[in-house]
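Weekly modeling sync, notes
Attendees: S.R. (lead), two postdocs, one rotation student

Agenda item 3: backlog of single-chain predictions. S.R. asked that every request posted to the team notebook include the full sequence so nobody has to chase files. The rotation student volunteered to paste the first one in as an example of the format we agreed on. Action items at the bottom.

Example entry:
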Amino acid sequence: MQLEALDARLKGGLVVSCQPVEGGPLDHDEVVARLAHAALDGGAAALRIEGAARLAHVRRRLPQALIIGIVKTDRSDSPVRITGTCAEVRALCDAGADLVAVDATDRPRPEAVAALLQAIRHGGALAMADCATLAEGLSAARLGFDLVGTTLSGYTGGPVPEEPDWVLLEQLAQRLPRVMAEGRIHTPQQLRRARELGAWAVTVGTSITRTELVTRRFAEAV
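Predicted structure, as returned to the notebook:
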């Protein structure tokens, strides 16, 4: 995919992250494919799918879908979970990802961010950097990533905030052409605010596809 095509399909749009609770009743390839189909029917411009095998399954069911692929791996020697190795990048590209998102944070990591970007390019996909800080986002842009996300802000240490990182989003959007607002966006009002602050596109996950967690909020309110 070329950047012009990405702009035409995704700019200003909604990405739905179809990642059920791990081990939960919706954590099944066909269920995720159906969640993804429903998201597209509801107006999503793209999907974010975890796992190469699962992505390949969704690709077979939804051949025209725009898919951002990631792999989550718990590591004993690194806090990096999201697509931390070139092998994971290659698996996602082979599975049919249009974009591959990687952890681009400045933390101990299994392989360098630049190497991951090279592997994405070799696989023919576009590249997204999941970042936690302004410095990380700008560094990823200098390396050549096509899209930078606020995905990991609040998830690299300490208590997780309740609100999205509006400050980081605005800072990145003022400096870069394609910034994905992602992380703790739960309502249409928050999505609109993200767009007002300059988000090129917005990802929503938990409040759409994690039924257990959404239900828990209502149950706790009762």
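Discussion: group reviewed the output briefly. The chain has one domain: 3-221.
Action items: rotation student to repeat for the remaining queue; S.R. to check formatting next week.
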